[in-house]
């Protein structure tokens, strides 16, 4: 991707790279039969023939980084597990996908649950674990059904259970449904929840790699990270590295949503831009312009149309002042009030704050009070500084990243749209008509 | 069965008498299930969340008797169980309807029409947030992001996906539910009751024929990128199959959308950027000029 001509090429065949999503259009794509017809469980055979330490090194060399938001190298997480310590080791898959805008793991598990199960078996061989858990958010029953069925099929076929494929590896997999709490996507809160407690984050250190589930060494990985491992084993780390960049290699699922012509899942090499994704998929809805968007969920500082050419990889988005996060590209057009959008996100963080630490619990409460006043046109100019100040007192000072997430929309919207906040104050109200933003707004307009 | 304000209030007065126990037959049945749940974990306390789903499948909400049952099975105090049951939003703490209707009003869905859906349903059903209709069929609430943003605005009923809804389409769905007609979500199996759903959540697979296959391999938005990559003509922007359609619930589990079904009589032809040079779509418009 060095030539300008290539960069301008918006042909989807060249820019997209369906791997995990490659056969979601096949009948019964979620079944073991269809998965095996698409090279399923081939990576596992290679992995089981390898020494666990070599396997960890191989995944580390592939450069795979966590797809759950933080981008931590997956192989390195595995390497942190102490070996020969005599304690049980656990793999816990974080399938609590709840970050606003994020919608990749749920369709992945619905259409292709065996990719995750194969990845789990490989990871457990590497970290020498004989019990893995999938912590699935409870609010997605159709996905739970398919996971139950896929696990049943995998046991019946000998991919789970005792002496898997004659390798000597024993592995049990438990599917665990959560009960509704955004905070359980935070890995230590997830572990507390999986232990049957309120989902509240733990102080670190010790990190889960040393004292995780039941105080034993534990790897917590995102669904997409683990599901990406089988193809790396099957097709090789060089193939994986041929996509993306040096520091952000490989492919990933980008989720396009909002006021776009064609929302959905777009699997592409890391580093594709929003402009490329929009160009190939029909752009914003007809007659409208992009106003603001999130690169990776509501907790990642928002971007505007100035950022359309930011490469969507860990370094590119970071250098532009945000985070790649979950690659949840929520796009809002010019009909959307940014104050309304941020108020709603702020209400979300206040609702989901677990209450353990004061900056987040109290701070998000007061942010909501200020944002509601501002949106309703009852704010004062001094409230904008107060808003910034409170967000600043949460950011970096809370127990976990939920607090930072709550501050991100406030900071970034004040940075790019301070004028719009001021309009709400001077005009004593919101200048936008929410009816114009709805999915059916333009249909009704034409009819009228 | 609209809940009275007193049921919702916080009781700060006299301490309550000990929670009642389940009748013997119920207890025996649930104990057998509970043993199966506990066996899945190296440490029994991990079974608490699924067991709370299990007691919810018995009574439709988490009662004091249910919490006492969990405490006894796991060797915990009822205070420890209550602390957990009150933390998570999926556990109902008072009686509710057979169908939990949750409208996503997190930012993206709200902007795309979720606020209008929620308002419309409150008016149509005559209930507010967290309240249940007189006939005990439907409990309405607004929910947070449910990981289906590419199908916004989304409504979840008993945690099944109803994608790309409009006020008209979702009113029709709740009318069908109240009339006892079978309702099939956009992606998933025909709806079962809240209690039956809770049993699946406790980790007991759905035994109904065809339930796992319900909804097909993937929804249309999930395939958007794949179809482009394969050079296949992408489907038109999907609107609710019910929008402008007949009142009967859809028959087939797999819905293969065609433009004829999607566009109701009130829909204008959908323009593309190519056909509307006066309004070129997309962010490149100005740069390209």
From TrEMBL, chain B:
Single GO term (MF): NADH dehydrogenase activity
Name of a matching Pfam family: 2Fe-2S_thioredx
As cofactor, the record names: [2Fe-2S] cluster
Q: Does the keyword Metal-binding apply?
A: yes
Q: Quick one: where's region Disordered? A: 1-22, 231-289
**Keyword Cell inner membrane applies:** no
Reactions catalysed according to its record:
a quinone + NADH + 5 H(+)(in) = a quinol + NAD(+) + 4 H(+)(out)
Superkingdom, taxonomy of origin: Bacteria
Which CDD domains does its entry note? TRX_Fd_NuoE (cd03064)
Which keywords describe this protein according to UniProt? Answer: 2Fe-2S, Iron, Iron-sulfur, Metal-binding, NAD, Oxidoreductase, Translocase
Q: What does this protein do?
A: NDH-1 shuttles electrons from NADH, via FMN and iron-sulfur (Fe-S) centers, to quinones in the respiratory chain. The immediate electron acceptor for the enzyme in this species is believed to be menaquinone. Couples the redox reaction to proton translocation (for every two electrons transferred, four hydrogen ions are translocated across the cytoplasmic membrane), and thus conserves the redox energy in a proton gradient.
What family does the Swiss-Prot or TrEMBL record give for this protein? Belongs to the complex I 24 kDa subunit family.
Q: Which NCBIfam families match?
A: nuoE_fam, PRK07539.1-1
Name this protein carries in UniProt: NADH-quinone oxidoreductase subunit E
- Which species does the entry assign this protein to? Streptomyces tagetis
């Amino acid at each position: 991707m060095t030539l300008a001509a290539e960069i301008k090429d918006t042909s989807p065949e060249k820019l997209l790279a369906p791997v995990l999503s490659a056969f979601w259009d096949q009948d019964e794509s979620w079944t073991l039969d269809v998965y095996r017809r698409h090279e399923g469980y081939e990576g596992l055979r290679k992995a089981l023939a390898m020494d666990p330490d070599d396997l960890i090194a191989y995944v580390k060399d592939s450069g795979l980084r966590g797809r759950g938001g933080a981008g931590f190298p997956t192989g390195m997480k595995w390497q942190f597990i102490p070996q020969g310590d005599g304690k049980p080791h656990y793999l816990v898959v974080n399938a609590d996908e709840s970050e606003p805008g994020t919608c990749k793991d749920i369709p992945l598990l619905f259409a292709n649950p065996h990719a995750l199960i194969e990845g789990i078996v490989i990871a457990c061989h590497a970290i020498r674990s004989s019990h893995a858990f999938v912590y699935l958010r409870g609010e997605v029953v159709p996905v739970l059904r398919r996971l139950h069925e896929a696990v049943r099929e995998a046991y019946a076929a000998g991919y789970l259970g005792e002496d898997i494929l004659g390798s000597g590896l024993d592995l049990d997999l438990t599917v665990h449904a959560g009960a509704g709490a955004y905070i359980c996507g935070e890995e230590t809160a997830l572990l507390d929840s999986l232990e049957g407690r309120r989902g509240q984050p733990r102080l670190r250190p010790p990190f889960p790699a040393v004292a995780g589930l039941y105080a034993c060494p534990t790897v917590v990985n995102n669904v997409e990270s683990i599901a990406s491992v089988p193809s790396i084993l099957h097709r090789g780390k060089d193939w994986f590295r041929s996509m993306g960049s040096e520091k952000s290699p490989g492919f990933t699922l980008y989720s396009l949503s909002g006021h776009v012509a064609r929302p959905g899942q777009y699997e592409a090499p890391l580093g594709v831009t929003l402009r490329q994704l929009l160009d190939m998929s029909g752009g914003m809805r007809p007659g409208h312009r992009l106003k603001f968007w999130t690169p990776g969920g509501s907790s990642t500082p928002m971007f505007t149309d100035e950022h359309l050419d930011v490469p969507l990889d860990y370094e590119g988005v970071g250098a532009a002042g945000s985070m790649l996060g979950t690659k949840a590209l929520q796009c809002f057009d010019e009909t959307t009030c940014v104050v309304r959008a941020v108020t709603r996100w702020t209400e979300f963080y206040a609702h989901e704050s677990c209450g353990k630490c004061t900056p987040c619990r109290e701070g998000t409460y007061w942010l909501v009070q200020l944002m509601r006043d501002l949106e309703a046109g009852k704010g004062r100019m001094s409230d904008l500084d107060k808003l910034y100040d409170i967000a600043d007192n949460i950011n970096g000072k809370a127990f976990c990243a939920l607090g930072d997430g709550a501050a991100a929309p406030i900071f970034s919207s004040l940075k790019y749209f301070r004028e719009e906040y001021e309009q709400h104050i001077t005009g004593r109200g919101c200048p936008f008509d929410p009816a114009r933003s709805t999915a059916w707004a333009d249909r009704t307009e034409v009819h009228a | 069965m609209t809940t009275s304000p007193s049921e919702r209030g916080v009781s700060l007065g006299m301490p309550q008498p000990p929670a009642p126990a389940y009748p013997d037959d119920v207890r025996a049945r649930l104990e057998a299930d509970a043993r199966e749940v506990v066996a899945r974990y190296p440490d029994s306390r991990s079974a608490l969340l699924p067991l709370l789903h299990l007691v919810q499948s018995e009574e439709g909400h988490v009662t004091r008797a249910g919490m006492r049952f969990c405490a006894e099975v796991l060797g915990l105090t009822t205070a420890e169980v209550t602390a957990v049951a009150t933390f998570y939003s999926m556990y109902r703490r008072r009686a509710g309807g057979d169908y939990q209707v949750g409208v996503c009003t997190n930012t993206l869905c709200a902007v795309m029409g979720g606020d209008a859906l929620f308002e419309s349903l409150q008016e149509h059903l005559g209930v507010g947030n967290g309240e249940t209709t007189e006939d005990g069929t439907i409990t309405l609430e607004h929910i947070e992001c449910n990981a289906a943003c590419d199908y916004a605005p989304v409504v979840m009923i008993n945690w099944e996906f109803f994608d790309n809804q409009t006020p008209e389409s979702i009113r029709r769905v709740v009318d069908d539910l109240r009339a006892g007609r079978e309702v099939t979500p956009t992606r998933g199996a025909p709806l079962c009751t809240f209690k039956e759903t809770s049993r699946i959540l406790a980790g007991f697979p759905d035994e109904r024929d065809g339930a796992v296959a319900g909804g097909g391999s993937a929804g249309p938005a999930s395939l958007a990128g794949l179809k482009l990559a394969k050079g296949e003509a992408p489907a038109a922007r999907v609107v609710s199959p019910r929008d402008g359609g007949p009142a009967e619930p859809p028959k087939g589990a797999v819905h293969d959308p065609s433009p004829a079904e999607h566009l109701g009589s009130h829909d204008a032809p959908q323009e593309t950027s190519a056909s509307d040079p006066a309004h070129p779509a997309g962010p490149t418009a100005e740069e390209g000029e």
